[in-house]
Design brief:
With 171 residues, the protein is an alpha/beta fold. 39% of the residues lie in helices and 18% in strands. The protein has helices at residues 2-21, 37-51, 69-76, 91-100, 136-149; strands spanning 60-63, 84-88, 105-108, 121-127, 150-159. A 5-stranded parallel β-sheet has the order 3-2-1-4-5. The protein starts with a helix and ends in a 12-residue tail after the last strand.
Length: 171
């Protein structure tokens, strides 16, 4: 079974790498690509609205956090670095995030098997990770893990959109 899990983790990492390679390097660079300004501001506003009322002393996990964009916002909003955690499957993203946020618990792991106990986090967030996952089973496994590590009564915040694999409709 472990060989199957390792193969699935490699496939997931390959999907992310292919997705990233297919996009222009400056696609999210506000200085070089002004077309993303509205998307960036709208995304920040959505996170702020969703987080309004949360205590800045709560444990927060960012699943599929990449280079740490949401971590940056959480810190800007006054959330405490020692209570923040992030997980991503790509080692280069983890390395970049660890350099930017040395006080945050940042781990390289497959989100289908999150390395925290049940109910550990008050808030679990995800931003634009699911859109990159083409395997519905993997997406369900990740979502199930996100629910597992969220405490009863906690918040699960997802900011994402999905396409149907090129067939022309949203799902």
């Amino acid at each position: 079974m472990r060989a199957d899990e390792d193969a699935a983790q490699r496939r997931t990492a390959d999907i992310y790498r292919q997705y990233q390679a297919s996009r222009p390097a400056d696609r999210n660079d506000l200085l070089n690509n002004p077309q993303v300004l509205f998307q960036s501001l709208a995304g920040r506003r959505a996170w702020i609205e969703a987080l309004r009322g949360q205590s800045r002393g709560e444990r927060v996990l960012d699943v599929g956090g990449g280079g740490g964009g949401e971590l940056s916002l959480l810190l800007d909003l006054g959330f405490r670095a020692e209570l923040l955690s992030m997980v991503d499957i790509l080692p280069d993203r983890i390395e970049s995030a660890r350099l930017r946020f040395p006080a945050v618990d940042i781990r390289c792991s497959d989100a289908r098997q999150l390395p925290w106990p049940d109910g550990f986090f008050d808030v679990v967030i995800e931003g634009s990770m699911f859109l990159q996952i083409t395997d519905e089973t993997q997406a369900i496994e990740i979502a199930t893990e996100m629910v597992r590590v969220t405490r009863p009564g906690g918040q699960l915040l997802i900011a994402d959109w999905r396409y149907d694999g090129g067939r022309g409709s949203f799902r």
